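Good morning,

Attaching, inline, the backbone tokens for the sequence recovery test we're adding to the shared suite. The designed sequence is right after.
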């Protein structure tokens, strides 16, 4: 049988490492529902620059939705059930975001992924995120699902040691990147965002990372 599915000609999943998969444009058909869902989250829990344990302000502005949210202050990095700005629980994880993350994870071989935390990062041109591991979560058997919106970025995919060489992974609006399994603790970061104006998102990059942070 000759397949006539138009998806056949769309960008194909790319395996970047044994348990790291890029789904180019995976979210492109759902951008407006995703943004509609994100808007009330950002009203209830605005982007802010958190302090690092060393007392510096992070270049990336962030907020969260979901039962748990990633926070940083002078006491360290951790997950919190409440937004330190408002003292209230974080806004709920919108179903459209949850569904996207679960489907993307399944495409990458992680069936049954149910995130309880969504970190939302805001990058202006020039903002970078230095190499780090995501290790504040309790269960490293669960993957990280990352959705990119707005200005393009170069994601650095490193190894399990900070000094390992990094792979440069261009990420565009609507791309979803998933890493888990033996890649779960790979170092990663984002190169400084190049100046530009994205037609839908303006002069910014927004990245959502979905995690299973609690037990
Ligand atoms: C992160 O590592 O938390 C964010 C990665 C990204 O912005 O692509
Ligand atoms: Fe990270």
């Amino acid at each position: 049988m000759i397949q006539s599915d138009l998806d056949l000609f769309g960008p194909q999943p790319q395996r970047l490492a044994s348990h790291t998969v890029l789904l180019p444009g995976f979210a492109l058909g759902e951008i407006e529902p995703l943004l509609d869902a994100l808007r009330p989250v950002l009203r209830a829990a605005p982007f802010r620059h958190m302090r690092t344990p060393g007392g510096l302000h992070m270049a990336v502005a962030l907020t969260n939705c979901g039962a748990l949210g990633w926070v940083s202050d002078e006491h360290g990095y951790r997950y919190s059930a409440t937004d330190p700005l408002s003292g209230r629980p974080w806004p709920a994880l919108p179903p459209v975001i949850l569904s996207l993350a679960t489907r993307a994870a399944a495409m990458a071989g992680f069936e049954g992924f149910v995130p309880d935390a969504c970190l939302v990062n805001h990058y202006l041109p020039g903002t970078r995120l230095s190499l780090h591991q995501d290790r504040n979560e309790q269960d490293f058997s669960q993957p990280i699902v990352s959705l990119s919106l707005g200005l393009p970025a170069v994601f650095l995919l490193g190894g399990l040691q900070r000094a390992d060489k990094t792979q440069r992974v261009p990420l565009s609006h609507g791309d979803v990147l998933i890493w888990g399994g033996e890649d779960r603790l790979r170092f990663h970061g984002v190169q400084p965002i190049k100046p530009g104006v994205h037609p839908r998102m303006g002069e910014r990059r927004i990245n959502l990372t979905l995690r299973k942070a609690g037990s």
